[in-house]
Amino acid sequence: MVVRVGVADDSFLIREALTRLLGDVDEVELVAVCADGEELAAAMDAQHPDVVLVDIRMPPTMTDEGIRLATRLRTTHPRVGVIVMSAYADPAYALALLQSGSEGRGYILKDRLHSRAQLLATIEAVSDGGSVIDPKVVEALVHGRSPLDVLTPREHDVLVEMARGASNGAIAEVLGLTKRAVEKHINSVFAKLDLPLSDDVSRRVRAVLLFLGEAGGPAR
Predict the structure, then answer these.
(1) Residue 144 has what pLDDT?
(2) In this model, does residue 190 exceed pLDDT 90?
(3) What is the pTM of this model?
(4) 3-133 homologous superfamily
(5) Cis bond leading into 218, ω under 30°?
(6) Range(s) for CATH 3.40.50.2300 in the chain?
(7) What angle do CA 27, 134, 110 make, to 5 degrees?
(8) Which CATH class is domain 142-215?
(9) For residues 175 and 161, what is the distance between their CA atoms, to the nearest angstrom?
(10) What secondary structure, in 3-state letters, does 150-180 show?
(11) Alpha helix ranges (H) inside 23-167
(12) Rounded to an integer, what distance in angstroms lies between the CA atom of residue 214 and that of residue 51?
């Protein structure tokens, strides 16, 4: 299956590099190469990408345009995967990216992208609905949280489904549990992983990021 890919980056050199990396790959069709997020957003309906790679900071404000675009696409094009490319190992950006769910989302660091194969693997994982978060970002976020082996097998199963982006109802259906039982397991996961209540950080997202860091890759 060929993955249709769109790109948005205000750097000419980055756009050229991505065009060279992806332009002659059989598994990928590069359908849009844009200078900013608004240009890519305008091209979505005409080009129908499956995955978009976006710089985290683009005009007009050069702050978090890539994150904002990913949030918008969750509503306007929910089946489109988004890979945010950043020079910053700031966990706050990753948390913002995943606040609406981890399914079909990636956060990679430009200076840690070492090969075309690595980029293609990330595109494939996100296209399949997985999540790819650079381990350096995960490390900065979790700061040595409790290991996953403190969880029971059932709690681990629930966390796996959370990492896949499943809702509580969907988790209940997949695991043959009631929604109330799922809620109890999730609360137990939060407690065992030492994830206290917070006004500005989602415990669900933190738990998923910890799982991805320990598992070494996207949930399948």
Answers:
(1) 46
(2) no
(3) 0.69
(4) Response regulator (3.40.50.2300)
(5) no
(6) 3-133
(7) 70
(8) mainly alpha
(9) 9
(10) HCCHHHHHHHHHHHCCCCHHHHHHHHCCCHH
(11) 37-47, 65-76, 91-98, 116-127, 135-142, 153-163
(12) 25
